[in-house]
Model the fold of this input.
Amino acid sequence: MKTKIRKKIKAYIELILSLVFIISGVYFCYIQYNENQKYDTRVDAVVKSVEDKYDRKNNKHKYKAKCEYEVNGKPYSYVTDWSSHHYTKNDIISINIDSADPEKINKYGHGTLGAFLIFCGGFAFYFYKRE
Done:
């Protein structure tokens, strides 16, 4: 009797957890959608310098580019996040900026988090349906 109740409780917790993840993910994707409306101008940034580091854990190099771009004759700078993309000097990177505040760059963080949460929710829901 107690094992049936425990299984039901576990199933309800998995269902609630999956729904929380999915709803949170959709919410963060909605936030990203609204943010995308603010970043209404696409500009080309030129890579001025590249920093690299060796990631021993993954046995590969990571790169960070320092870029410059211009809006209405005024120069701005931008530094990418560390990534495995090998930037070289004078590469062109297209970025989306807020035309009202050209220093603000869309990094798509909320959308990435939202997609991850939806994936986790789907994974949790799969285990809920499996039992």
